[in-house]
Amino acid sequence: MAMASIIGHCPNRPSVLLASLLQNKSCNSRAVGESRIASIHQFSGEGGGELRRGQRVRRARRRGFGLSVTRSMAGSSEQEVRGGESVGRPEMLTTASYSPPSWASKLHPLPSQFCTLGQFPTPIHRWNLPGLPKDTEVWIKRDDLTGMQLSGNKVRKLEFLIADAKAQGADCVITIGGIQSNHCRATAVAAKYFNLDCYLILRTSRTVVEQDPGLEGNLLVERMVGAHVSLVSKEEYVQLGSVGLGKLLTEKLKAEGRKPYVIPVGGSNSLGTWYALHISFYNLYLVA
């Protein structure tokens, strides 16, 4: 099978083949003017209304949740329900212990900690759309307000994955996605905050692979935070797959004495999926 040609782009050279990459002759894409990215200012939605705390409590009671839950829902808006208990959200950019809900205690793997990458819980606002059918309401979960450099809901999976990378003693992370992947951008920023180098394998057209991808969109943010960027054509991606590409780069980094941690495409694995279990308890049952 022909070896794929992941292209690693550098400011001074347009590309380098995977063969060179595996022989430790590649150059990594360094930050083009590393800079701290300004934080997003959170705002309240206009033309709508946030679900009132009393409404949340009443709906929780109608669904049969105990007083320990409803009382916590009536508490501070800065508190988050975790497994039926209200726990103060730790300070941003720290690692804290995680206690899963009792109904999920037999699932595997069970996360034991998480990193605080977002401002949670995010509000739910009513959206007043004209022409809605009678007795129809539209509500929006405002994950655009998570607060980590436009990362939105992407930080939810990364809270568990970055914590696991640190727990395993990794010094860098690898992930894969499209040329303008929001997940890859969020991973690069999160890794920077937790002192992990980030290696991105980005899928694009063969035409773009053969030239420097530039500093547009998510690529700008990724390079600003010092991510190491490599490109692969769509044809080569189909040939080797994301798992195969990740293994090749992992072997190369280990040969250099690094300790890489692979995050799958979109952060979608059994550990990353815990974010869905967590917010479903808070959002679906207590709020919806």
Automatic annotation (TrEMBL):
Region (Disordered): 72-91
Pfam family, one: PALP
Superkingdom in the source lineage: Eukaryota
Cofactor(s) for this UniProt protein: pyridoxal 5'-phosphate
Swiss-Prot/TrEMBL keywords: Pyridoxal phosphate
Domain Tryptophan synthase beta chain-like PALP: 117-270
MF term (GO), any: carbon-sulfur lyase activity
InterPro entries assigned: ACCD_DCysDesulf (IPR027278), TrpB-like_PALP (IPR001926), TrpB-like_PALP_sf (IPR036052)
Family that this chain belongs to: Belongs to the ACC deaminase/D-cysteine desulfhydrase family.
Record's protein name: Tryptophan synthase beta chain-like PALP domain-containing protein
